[in-house]
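User: Structure please.
Assistant: Input sequence and predicted structure:
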Amino acid sequence: MIPSVGGDTSFTSSALAYERLPDDVKEAIEGRFAIHDFSMSFGRAMTDEERAEQQVKFPPARHPIVRTHPDTGERSLYTSRNFVREIEGADDDEFQRLMDAFERAIMSPSVQCRVKWQPDTFVMWDNRAVHHHASDDFWPETRHVERVTITGDRPF
């Protein structure tokens, strides 16, 4: 089901986003890790009980901020404001500064393409190298898309 207005999905090249970060930010994140926690996004709609149950199944994960694609060797940002709970070793000010820099890089139209869904639209992307974001500008209509996710590798 496609809404009559809105509901597009933006896709970002996380390799280009990383490449365009200022040098001082690249230096600050080299070799560092972030803690990803689903409860910051999906968990908000759950009861405390449901969230606790899902946390057991899907505990927070430690991932490098910059990951290397196993096939291309490209370095890319592996972060998301919706999932990164903390950056190891960062105080609140540094965390906010870095997350803001990541967000600016990821949200730049120069590294994005936008898909306007139509019936039978098929899109395939590599989560190891692409961020995606669905626009939530179609209320009160609904949007229904089918998604298949292939189990991937562990980021490095």
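The first helix runs from residue 14 to 19.
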